[in-house]
Design goal:
The protein is α+β, with helices and mostly antiparallel strands. It has one helix at residues 3-44, and strands at residues 173-177, 183-190, 193-201, 206-210, 220-224, 227-231, 245-249.
C-alpha cells in the first residue's frame, strides 16, 4: 500500500476515532465532576467530638486497612495519667479531609518517563503564514543526461568565405647548404620575397683535413699525429688531449724496408752533346 492509500484510510477513520474520544471525554468529565463535588462536601464537614465510652473488650486483630486521609489537627487536651500500654486497635475510618497546607519544597527532578504512544492524526489545520526564507542549499549532484531532442530544422547555408591566398609550388622552393656544409637551408619565395625559411643541421662526419687551431663542429673529422679523430661536440680543443674528440683511426707502425726491385729497361739514347767551343 502506497502513501496516498494510507492517507486516504487515515482520513476515513479520523471522524470515528474523534467521536469515540469525545464520548470518553464527556464520560470522564461527568465522573470527575461528581468526585469533585463529594470531596468538596467532605472538606466542609466539621469533626464532632463524642463522649468517651466504656472500655470495650479487646478484639481480634483485623486485617490491615488502607491508609486513610489525615484528619484535622484537634485541640490540645489536658495531660492524663499514664495508662497501661494497650493493644493495637484496628485502623479507624478515614477522617474528613483537612485544610490544604502550604506548598511543600520543590522535590528532586524525577527520571524521564517512557515515550507515550502516538495519538490519532488530527484534522488538517489551516495553512500557517509563510516562514522566513531559508539559506540556499548545496548544489545537488549532476543529473543523468536527458533523452536526445527532436532533430531541428536545417539551417540556412552560410555566406561564402573569402578566397585564400595562392599556395606555393615546387618552383617557389630553393635549397642550399651553408658554407660549412652543416646546414640545409630551405627557403620559400613569393614575388621575390622570402616567405618562410627552415634550417636543418646535420651531424654527419665531414672530413676537414689536418687539425688546425680553429673552431670545429660536431661530426667534423680531422687528422692529427697520423691518426683520425671525430668531434663529439662543437669544440676548439686539440685532439688526443681533450674528451671533445673521439679516436676513429689510429696511426700504424712503420713497415719494413722492401726488397730491391729489378733493373728497368734501357732508356733511349740521349742527344749528342756540344763542345763549348762550337758555340
Amino acid at each position: 500500500m502506497d502513501h496516498q492509500s494510507i492517507a486516504a484510510v487515515s482520513r476515513g477513520f479520523a471522524p470515528i476515532v474523534l467521536a469515540e474520544i469525545e464520548g470518553v471525554r464527556r464520560h470522564l468529565a461527568a465522573d470527575l465532576a461528581a468526585l469533585v463535588e463529594r470531596v468538596s462536601a467532605l472538606e466542609k464537614m466539621a469533626p464532632v467530638k463524642g463522649e468517651k465510652g466504656d472500655k470495650g473488650d479487646v478484639g481480634r486483630d483485623g486485617i490491615d486497612g488502607k491508609d486513610g486521609m489525615p484528619g484535622p489537627q484537634g485541640e490540645k487536651g489536658e495531660k492524663g495519667d499514664k495508662g497501661d500500654p494497650g493493644l493495637d486497635g484496628a485502623p479507624g475510618a478515614a477522617g474528613p479531609a483537612g485544610e490544604r497546607g502550604d506548598p511543600g519544597l520543590q522535590g528532586e527532578k524525577g527520571s524521564d518517563g517512557l515515550n507515550g504512544k502516538d495519538g490519532a492524526p488530527g484534522e488538517m489545520g489551516p495553512p500557517g503564514p509563510a516562514g522566513p526564507r531559508g539559506e540556499d542549499g548545496r548544489d545537488g549532484l549532476a543529473g543523468r543526461d536527458g533523452l536526445p531532442g527532436v532533430q531541428g530544422e536545417k539551417g540556412r547555408d552560410g555566406v561564402d568565405g573569402k578566397d585564400g591566398k595562392d599556395g606555393l609550388g615546387i618552383d617557389d622552393v630553393t635549397e642550399e647548404t651553408s658554407e660549412d656544409d652543416r646546414e640545409l637551408v630551405r627557403r620559400y619565395w613569393r614575388d621575390g620575397q622570402i616567405v618562410k625559411e627552415f634550417r636543418s643541421r646535420s651531424a654527419a662526419m665531414l672530413y676537414r683535413g689536418t687539425w688546425r687551431s680553429k673552431p670545429y663542429c660536431k661530426g667534423d673529422v680531422v687528422t692529427h699525429g697520423g691518426s683520425s679523430f671525430v668531434a663529439l661536440v662543437d669544440t676548439v680543443a686539440k685532439p688526443e688531449v681533450s674528451p671533445d674528440w673521439q679516436l676513429a683511426v689510429k696511426r700504424g707502425h712503420h713497415g719494413k724496408d722492401g726488397k730491391d726491385g729489378k733493373n728497368g729497361e734501357r732508356g733511349p739514347p740521349g742527344r749528342d752533346g756540344k763542345n763549348h767551343w762550337d758555340t
